[in-house]
Amino acid sequence: MPVIRHEIRIAAPIDVCFDLARNVELFAMASPQPKQWAVAGMTTGLLERGDTVIWESRHLGIRQYISAVITEMEKPVHFTDVMVEGIFRSFITHHEFEEVKGGTRMTTVFSYQSPFGIAGKLADRLFLERYMEQFIIERANGLRRVAEMNESQVMRL
């Protein structure tokens, strides 16, 4: 099972980073192309423990729907989302936040099992793991850009 770990430092307070990371609209805005958007369950606002969201996206030319539930949350230090239905056999994402000098360290740990047995494992090695890692990095960079904006920039969003 591939595990992708990504850390990023953000020049913003931990509570700001935590709330932005669980904001449904920002998740869609901060996601790289192809865009993802919430189509059912929680479609706006801040995700809480027990909330479910169904995401629609297009990855690798395939339209996908993924239903995920927030299974753990300790504000403002971590939350976990788990896929309950979707194209993967499984995935779990742990979002961790730590106060550091000058801001926050946000760590994303994404573990997944590809569908399609041996063919899925081959896809992991050939391209899927790199694709998912790049997706996580670009989304974290988008979140950082918003978190580090000044108030006048945020008002223009």
Protein architecture, described:
Keywords: Cell cycle, Cell division. This is Cell division protein. It holds the Pfam family Polyketide_cyc2. By secondary structure, this protein is of the alpha+beta class. It has a single domain (3-155), classed as START domain (Alpha-D-Glucose-1,6-Bisphosphate, Chain A, domain 4), CATH 3.30.530. 32% of the residues lie in helices and 41% in strands. It has four helices and seven strands; from the N terminus they run βααββββββαα. It has helices at residues 14-21, 24-30, 117-147, 151-155; strands spanning 3-10, 36-41, 52-59, 62-74, 78-85, 90-100, 103-113. The longest helix has 31 residues, at 117-147. The mean pLDDT is 90.
- Total strands: the figure is 7
Largest beta-sheet details: 7 strands, antiparallel
Rg measurement, Å: 15 Å
Give the class-level CATH name.
Alpha Beta
With strands numbered from the N-terminus, the spatial order across the biggest sheet is 1-7-6-5-4-3-2
Categorize the overall geometry. globular
Q: Termini, distance in Å?
A: 38 Å
> Based on helices, strands and strand pairing, what is the structural class?
alpha+beta
Domain module tally: 1
Number of helices: 4
The unreliable regions are none
The CATH homologous superfamily is called: START domain
User: Strand-residue fraction?
Assistant: 35-45%
- Mean pLDDT, rounded to whole units? 90
From the 3D coordinates, which CATH architecture would you assign? 2-Layer Sandwich
CATH topology: Alpha-D-Glucose-1,6-Bisphosphate, Chain A, domain 4
Run of helices and strands: EHHEEEEEEHH
**Helix coverage percent:** 25-40%
Oligomer: single chain
Organism: Planococcus lenghuensis
Pfam family, one: Polyketide_cyc2
Keywords: Cell cycle, Cell division
InterPro entries: Polyketide_cyclase/dehydratase, START-like_dom_sf
